[in-house]
Amino acid sequence: MKYFAVIGNPITHSKSPDIHAAFAAQFDIDLSYIKLLGNTGDFAATADNFFERGTGANVTLPFKEDALRFADKLSEDAKLAGAVNTLSWQNGIIKGDNTDGVGLVTDIQRNHGCELAGKKVLIIGAGGAARGVILPIARQQAASITIANRTHTKALDLAKQFAEFAPATAAEMASLQLTYDVVINATSASLAGVEINLPKSIFGEQTLAYDMMYAHEPTPFMQFARANGTTVADGLGMLVEQAAKSFEIWHGVFPETRGVITDIRHQL
Ligand code: NDP
Questions:
Q1: I need a surface site. Which of 81, 129, 153, 206 has the fewest CB within 10 A?
Q2: DSSP state, 31?
Q3: Digit-coded pLDDT (tens) for 50-84
Q4: How far away, in angstroms, is 216 Cα from ligand 1 center?
């Protein structure tokens, strides 16, 4: 039996044990995957204790940067994202990966049928979630990646940091004028249930409006986008797809995800 966990604080709400149990059942893999309440201020103590016999851990809020420091070795995505959501024990070394960006790209392209190549992408937000998705979107040959954030200086910093790797630029939220092919809400505004002050012109009939947040009801961002004629999606598929990528890192096989997304949605 191999041991896995998701470490966060709070953690009771996490769907990850259900998702990994569903994946494991597809391959008859026997595993234990638990929710672990991380020690705020001492993530390393929680992780050290777990990895005495653990094989892999997912890491969620507020520990993704602590996990970056905890890992002995980092993937390219984790380095550039400045955050780790997947830790793996490999012959005494702890490897840190970030599968959030790949999860988002897979969900958008495979589950929502929206290829990113040649597309104009707008990312709202400049926090950890935004940072983690820029490189994976750029790898799909998006035509442009515009970053707009409430605090404009943070968008400028992020665009500058990724300029070498991605067609990324920053724009002031209030002065956005183009219509985008894909608009991604990477802010935590939906968590607070508040609408973001966005110009309607960013949405066209062909736009996919994607909120990284997920809930039982469409988020305020999704409602606003839908009222302006777009197709909308929430971040539940991203959650399941990032888990699938972690599962592949740990077990060497990629699970079927669509049925799992449907099952988890019924539990929301
Ligand atoms: P951070 O705290 O790092 O960043 C928050 C961002 O939201 C900042 O850009 C902030 O702007 C912006 N923001 C907050 N409130 C508002 C508001 N009222 N109006 C406009 N902008 C606002 O959070 P994360 O980047 O880590 O997470 C963002 C979201 O992504 C969360 O909802 C999280 O649940 C989701 N997420 C989903 C995942 C999935 O698998 N589906 C995976 C990872 C994240 P400012 O800089 O001005 O403060």
A1: 153
A2: E
A3: 999 999 999 999 999 999 999 999 999 999 999 99
A4: 19
Element (H, E) at 240: helix 236-251
109 phi/psi in degrees, rounded to 5: -80, -50
In contact, 101 and 136? CB cutoff 8 Å:
yes
Label residue 103 exposed, middle or buried (CB < 10 Å: 0-12, 13-18, 19+).
Answer: buried
The two tokens of residue 162 are 């990724």
Band (211; pLDDT cuts 50, 70, 90): very high
User: CA 258 to CA 265: how far, in whole Å?
Assistant: 11
Dist. CA 63–CA 79, nearest whole Å: 15
Q: How far apart are CA 140 and CA 115, in angstroms?
A: 8
pLDDT tens per residue, range 120-179: 999 999 998 999 999 999 999 999 999 999 999 999 999 999 999 999 999 999 999 999
User: Where do we find the tokens 């958008």?
Assistant: 108
Residues 86-114 have a mean pLDDT of 97
Are 166 and 145 a contacting pair, CB within 8 Å?
yes
- Residues near ligand 1 with C-beta < 6 Å? 100, 125-130, 149-151, 154, 186-191, 194, 196, 212-214, 235, 238-239, 242
Angle (CA) 211-142-207 rounded to 5° is 45
Give the sheet arrangement for strand 182-185, strand by strand.
Answer: 168-170, 144-148, 120-124, 182-185, 208-211, 231-233
pLDDT in tens, 7-52: 999 999 999 999 999 999 999 999 999 999 999 999 999 999 999 9
For residue 205, which of 230, 237, 172 has the smallest C-alpha distance?
Answer: 230
